[in-house]
């Protein structure tokens, strides 16, 4: 299914995404109940903790995601319009295309990257104000992920996205 959300950005000269690697997010394997890292098969997905800035408090948002063995996990914080098209493929949300010179391209996002988590604004605990959250995309419907991205309504705010690039 193709993304209904296509954003474009003004064209400008920017270094090629191939020459400029994306910024990486700190990741760590969550500890097991005993506090030790749990052993896993080398072919099994890695369970990792990813972070993104919490623009409201200055702290960090965290989410646990599954990443493919041998993949590289990275995060970007970009302005709208994002300059990318997302699609659902094989039960995952992937980048179908990136607008040359757009915000996503300038941050190093490339076609084929899989979206693991997105920053969103959510009603938490029945409160009136939307709170920032980092939503893992694994197992989510495309419409849910699209709505989460759209929930970042502040025109000057950054949208925080966590991707993985294949092995």
TrEMBL record:
<feature type="compositionally biased region" description="Low complexity">
    <location>
        <begin position="1"/>
        <end position="43"/>
    </location>
</feature>
<dbReference type="InterPro" id="IPR036034">
    <property type="entry name" value="PDZ_sf"/>
</dbReference>
<protein>
    <recommendedName>
        <fullName>PDZ domain-containing protein</fullName>
    </recommendedName>
</protein>
<feature type="region of interest" description="Disordered">
    <location>
        <begin position="1"/>
        <end position="55"/>
    </location>
</feature>
